[in-house]
Design goal:
The protein is an all-alpha fold. Helix 1 runs antiparallel to helix 7. The chain is globular and about 50 Å long. The protein starts with 6 loop residues before the first helix and ends with a helix. The relative contact order is 0.18. The mean pLDDT is about 90.
């Protein structure tokens, strides 16, 4: 992990990405549709992250034009979210680690139990997070955000973060990102998932 990692910025980036992947845009921030938001989004001195941020910027610019032409972009993105991560009858792309690391097609497996323990040990509570399994990608990214916050103030160490990356999100996010790209290649979430993966690879 780079010794010059900017942990406050990392905490903010992962908080935005985690919240954005945990619930539809109608229930979270729509900053991702604002090109000016992406113009100041940190790239962490990494070319792959910068490329992912540029893709998010391009999507936001195109979305702004679509809105000017009368399209309800937020509603379209909410529908995209539902088709990808909710269903019915089931998600096109399961957002739970368990679904990518076992034969289960839903959540609640060994990864879910591990995440429950990690959240409890950190004093975090995922019960209000849309009643999702603890190994949901959004919850894992929010946990990363919390670790970054604690590293920034000296109450956690970087080794804990690095080990978590390797044992959990980095072990499955590439396959998850590929599936999202196949299911909705021109959508909003393909860019957010790709950005999350690139940031983790850059600092993990």
């Amino acid at each position: 992990m780079p010794t010059n990692a900017n942990f406050p910025d990392l905490a903010d980036a992962f908080a935005f990405l985690g919240n954005s992947l945990l619930a539809p845009i109608s229930q979270t921030s729509d900053l991702g549709l604002d090109p000016s938001f992406w113009s100041i989004f940190p790239t962490f001195n990494d070319d792959a992250v910068a490329e992912a941020v540029s893709a998010c910027t391009a999507y936001a610019q195109a979305a702004s034009k679509r809105q000017e032409q009368g399209e309800n972009v937020r509603q379209a993105i909410s529908v995209e979210y539902a088709k990808l991560f909710v269903g019915p009858p089931k998600p096109a792309v399961a957002p739970w680690e368990t679904a990518w690391r076992s034969t289960s097609s839903v959540g609640f497996g060994e990864a879910t139990i591990q995440m429950r323990h990690l959240l409890a040990e950190s004093g975090l509570n995922a019960s209000g997070a849309s009643n999702q399994y603890a190994d949901h990608i959004g919850i894992e990214l929010l946990y990363v955000s919390t670790l970054c916050e604690r590293i920034a103030v000296g109450s956690a160490n970087e080794q804990v973060l690095s080990e978590f990356f390797q044992e959990h999100p980095l072990a499955w996010i590439d396959a998850f990102a590929t599936a999202v790209a196949e299911a909705a290649p021109k959508g909003y979430y393909v860019h957010l998932v790709e950005l999350a993966a690139r940031i983790m690879l850059a600092i993990g």
